[in-house]
Amino acid sequence: MSDRYLQFTQSAFGRQLVTKLGLPNPTPLRRFKPGEPLIAGPVLLGGSGRLADSVSATLQDVGADARKERADGERYAGLVFDATGITSSEGLRELYDFFAPSIRQIDRCGRLVVLGTPPESLSDPKAATAQRALEGFTRTAGKELKRGATSQLVYVAEGAEGATDSTLRFLLSGKSAYVSGQVVRISAADVPGISQDRPLQDEVALVTGASRGIGAAIAETLARDGAHVVCLDVPAQGGELAAVANRIGGSTLQLDITAEDAPDKIAEHFTERHGGLDVVVHNAGITRDKTIGRMSEAHWDAVLAVNLASQERIDAKLLGEDSPLRPGGRIICVSSMSGIAGNVGQANYATSKAGVIGHVHSAAPLAAKKGATINAVAPGFIETQMTAAIPLFVREAGRRMNSMSQGGKPIDVAETIAWYANPASAGVNGNVVRVCGQSLLGA
Ligand code: NAD
Fold it and tell me: What does pTM read for this prediction?
């Protein structure tokens, strides 16, 4: 589905008109392309905390040009500020001192990242307060930044300094094109040394609902990163499913995930055919919209069964005894903005997607015990067949009501999932990251 308004604003006449009328002026987003540098220009570093070495190591590894001194007139692909040294509200002034002169030097589709310490881990109330305050700053910066630039806050636990690499690569690159205003938490973890060119090399992944839309993009992206992907969908989608699997050198598993024996069938399939399983993406989902008073029992039950109960049952199997999930396993759930903000006509869907967030939070400690992680993405308006069917005016509102003034693409959700799936993301557990261009809803 193409965004004709965005195309129009790229013409000379269109640009002039939207500027004159003060209409949304979306910037075509720079997305990651294999072979291109991960970070497209110099990165200015600031702050004084415990993460300087971790940030420098990542920038050096990706061949980025790190600068410690701001120069007038220079454009920056990234501004990274280590705020872990801020221990009081007075210290927050450091943010102003660094960003006030530099923020306007951020390039088109540039990246702003602030690093902090999780407030809940600090015993000093003044330090915890100052660290919590960082959220207000980064979310506002995301709303003020123009031309496709993004802003994020990463809370890095003490002891997790060596676990930041995959997250910095993701947040500083075009892989996070449609992610902004987010707060990520990284906890201490053993991070394996692996090639970041094909981080999922020799791994086996399962993607549910993989025959089309976001699921097909997820399967393609995990295959790009080196995984053998088993594409799962209902038998009725068999033809499209096989086409996706063939395109990416993967295989298929035709199954209705709501079937009583689905968890056992999945476990059996991976144990027998692949000798194990590394990444599971619960992407399959349905909508059956009606306002609460008009909703049929069947519509309520179907949505809760596909979007929530089946995932809980499959994960109970995968996180239980006798499971094909290997150490370092990754479970990734697909929630939705509706699950965060609610949405008229979607009580069943919003309940199921809020439940997915609850599931991620409640299963995270068990996953950690098993050396695995469980996280969720919450997509906003993504250009798919599902959103193409929305009536024009509602669709236009959905597309523009975010800091990017445009919808995201399935690849944006897929890249976020690939970051969670990365073996180097071992410290990223129990997170919910919105892929919504910093939607104004539920912010
Ligand atoms: P889609 O309808 O194009 O694809 C969903 C897939 O899931 C289909 O191939 C379908 O056959 C499969 N599926 C449904 N029930 C199943 C079952 N019982 N067993 C196995 N497979 C089943 O949807 P999409 O737009 O690609 O969305 C993918 C996910 O992203 C869903 O969970 C959706 O709720 C979520 N999401 C989408 C958007 C968006 O803007 N498109 C926004 C937020 C969240």
Answer: 0.96
